[in-house]
Amino acid sequence: xxxxxxxxxxxxxxxxxxxxxFLERPIKxxxxxxxxxxxxxxxxxxxxxxxxxSSEVIKVFENNLNNNNLGSVEELLKNSILEANSSxxxxxxxxxxxxxxxxxxxxxxxxxxxxxxxxxxxSRAYLIRKKTIKQLTKDxxxxxxxxxxxxxxxxxAKISPKRNILMRAIGINDLLEVDTLEPINIYPNDxxxxxxxxxxxxxxxxxxxxxxxxxxPDSACRKMIATANLRGGKDNITVQITKVxxxxxxxxxxxxxxxxAS
Length: 262
Fold this sequence. Notes:
Blueprint: E1 2-10, E2 20-28, E3 34-42, H1 50-66, H2 73-94, E4 105-111, E5 114-120, E6 124-129, E7 132-135, H3 142-148, H4 154-159, E8 179-180, E9 184-185, E10 191-195, H5 197-200, H6 205-214, H7 217-230, E11 237-245, E12 258-261
Helix pairs in contact: 1-2, 6-7
């Protein structure tokens, strides 16, 4: 398999700094096949040093990817998040100015013709296949929890203040439950979208699908972020797109780019 990827992060219209971090990188598996890692981490807004927390997640993943042959992708994803959790907690304890920081993380690795996802918080992963979009992750928010117990409808959850209250985040508690999804078989033209909640707040699923299906990954990222900013942009916005290609002439990760907009 071959991949076309793009990542873009924007500070938005209100925040004074960007607390989102992301990782986008090609990987070689132990059988020398192509693979790719895409990770979004959203530092907790309103807390101290959210950017430090999200950056720490990325550092841990980079280190573990550099030292792992992807023998077990699920373990790599889960253990990296747990390691970042311990590291962020230790940093919070050692420095007063870092106390209370935390972050979300949604991590995707495509390898061995499968997609592997691990997740904590409310950054999301979507799969667009045959022009149908599916949310793969479940938000760890109070609103989503209430929906699952029939205490709130999906429509009510979209506008509830509780949609922004996290029930689970990295760097808050020593014991952390990490959601790991069942591996997903991938096919040519599958498109994965990862994003922070700064996008979800303003851009609906059907709009994400339409923009991604009608544009190349770089243009799609720009258009989604522009839409979110036009509608308010009260939070940082990060979007990552990975398109699965069959044609080797496209080149592995030929359009891989990293951009931070401010």
